[in-house]
Amino acid sequence: MPTKVFFNEPPEPLVILNYSEDLSLLRVSISHEDHAAPVELFSTGCGKDITEELQSKEGFSVYMEGCKRINLRYRRFLFRKKWKVMYQDVELSGIEVS
Fold this sequence. Notes:
Blueprint: E1 3-7, E2 14-19, E3 25-31, E4 39-45, H1 48-54, E5 60-62, E6 70-76, E7 81-87, E8 90-96
Antiparallel strand pairs: 1-2, 1-8, 2-3, 3-4, 5-6, 6-7, 7-8
């Protein structure tokens, strides 16, 4: 499963996505410090509803007590796939780590 880490300048947390290429599995974790263990916010085998939400204009939102809203959008272009991750109103930059 590919893993992407999304980040911005502190105090925004690291958002970690583990997902399957066909989006049948998705795990969203968050880490507030560089070396802290991530806390899992959401994990599931994606049903059709979640996959459609991820690919919709509004995206799929994940909430956690004490955290702001995290919005996920997944776009596919010809040979390119792109994640857009927003932490409240801030777009996070992402890198693929595996």
